[in-house]
From TrEMBL:
GO cellular component, one term: cytoplasm
Organism: Acanthopleuribacter pedis
Descriptive protein name: tRNA N6-adenosine threonylcarbamoyltransferase
Residues annotated to bind substrate: I137, V138, S139, G140, G141, D170, G183, D187, N280
InterPro entries for the chain: ATPase_NBD, Gcp-like_dom, KAE1/TsaD, TsaD
Intracellular or extracellular location(s): Cytoplasm
Catalytic activities: L-threonylcarbamoyladenylate + adenosine(37) in tRNA = N(6)-L-threonylcarbamoyladenosine(37) in tRNA + AMP + H(+)
Keywords tagged on the record: Acyltransferase, Cytoplasm, Iron, Metal-binding, Transferase, tRNA processing
Record GO terms (molecular function): iron ion binding; tRNA N(6)-L-threonylcarbamoyladenine synthase activity
Location (main, coarse): cytoplasm
Family that this chain belongs to: Belongs to the KAE1 / TsaD family.
Listed cofactors: Fe(2+)
E.C. no: 2.3.1.234
A biological process term (GO) from this entry: tRNA threonylcarbamoyladenosine modification
Length: 339
């Protein structure tokens, strides 16, 4: 029997991506077109510019993915698309592209939740993870700690009450005029900074919830800058490196503090980490050290499958389709969607 070919479409934020995987879950193509140049002058994603760029990019990215996978239109069997959460204008481009393709070729259409896609990326890369798993998904839009009980059942243990971890990195970079997107730049500068140079208090909630909060860390960094602007005036100077290292260390401490708290309550067989912030070198190392300490196998997605990509969407689409779950052509994007 010929392999079933799944096409994944992702356009929820500022990356236009189309991927092709087969029924074994092998990635045949995973093309990502970034819009960094579009948004860099503004220091953040501008929704209207993002949707226009998706419109321009999506046919090109589609053709590149088809060429890379060495397939034609006739070979596509199933279309999977991110329908939320995300920016409405951005989501509309991907959803309408996928709907047109499904309608034109009479193909099944599978709606995919972006956050579940980030979790599925871990299965796509690492196969059958030992379950239950404690899974941290950290990106520019979300910070979620899940108990992944089965390949289908994910219990949300904690989420951010304000900024996402990646958003906090991006905002620090904007304050320091480092460029966009800031996470990777902060990571690089932090490598030659002192993580103990500036104090940051760990966020706490009076109700004792396991949730995350990053806005206090951001305010504390802004306070340091306001107190002594002269000290931070040299571009990429030592004070800036020290602040990046101290801030990054506080973000990672807060992320792992909740994982440790959850480990006191939940009995798990593995730890896993995904989402764009999983590219952070200090987080990757600290997460692995935590796994070693608790003698738990630890899985982290490779950078290409950590940041937004359509391979994870195609993989989640394949998983749903194999259980007989499909959507209909009146599919609409959902800006807010729980995992
Ligand atoms: O998963 P992703 O591509 O998009 C969302 O779903 O949001 O994540 C992008 C986020 C951005 O905030 C970016 O600054 C952050 O991931 N990021 C990093 C690093 N690389 C990307 N944050 C910290 N350190 C990094 N090395
Ligand atoms: Zn994402």
């Amino acid at each position: 029997m010929a392999a079933t070919i799944f096409l994944g479409v992702e356009s929820s934020c500022d990356d236009t991506s189309i991927a092709v995987i087969n029924n074994e879950g092998t990635i045949l193509a995973n093309v990502v077109s970034s819009q960094i140049k579009e948004h860099a002058p503004f220091g953040g994603v501008v929704p209207e510019l993002a949707s226009r760029a998706h419109l321009r990019n999506i046919p090109v990215v589609f053709q590149q993915a088809m060429d890379q996978a060495q397939i034609g239109l006739d070979d596509i069997d199933v279309v999977a698309v991110t329908h939320g959460p995300g920016l409405i204008g951005s989501l509309l481009v991907g959803v309408n592209f996928a709907k047109s393709l499904a309608f034109g070729r009479n193909l099944p259409l599978v709606p995919v939740n972006h956050i579940r896609g980030h979790i599925r990326a871990l299965f796509l890369e690492h196969g059958d993870l030992p379950l239950p798993a404690l899974t941290l998904i950290v990106s520019g839009g979300h910070t979620h700690l899940f108990l992944v009980e089965t390949p289908d059942h994910f219990v949300l243990l904690a989420k951010t009450r304000d900024d996402a971890a990646g958003e906090a990195f991006d905002k620090l970079a904007k304050m320091l005029d480092l460029g966009f997107p800031g996470g990777a730049i902060v990571d690089k500068l932090a490598q030659s900074g002192d993580p103990k140079a500036f104090p940051f208090n760990m966020p706490r909630f009076s109700d004792g919830a396991l949730d995350y909060s990053f806005s206090g860390l951001k305010t504390a960094a802004a306070h340091q800058l306001r107190r002594d602007p002269q000290r931070f005036s040299e571009p990429e100077g030592q004070a800036i490196r020290d602040l990046c290292a101290s801030f990054q260390s506080a973000v990672v401490r807060h992320l792992l503090q909740r994982v440790r708290q959850a480990l006191k309550v939940e009995k798990v067989a593995s730890l896993s980490l995904g989402g764009g912030v999983a590219c952070n070198s200090h987080l990757r190392q600290s997460f692995r050290e935590l796994g070693d300490k608790y003698r738990l196998p630890t899985y982290i997605t490779a950078p290409k499958l950590s940041t937004d990509n359509a391979a994870m969407i195609a993989a989640e689409g394949r998983h749903l389709f194999q259980q007989g779950i499909t959507g209909s052509l009146d599919l609409n994007p959902e800006v807010r969607l729980n995992a």
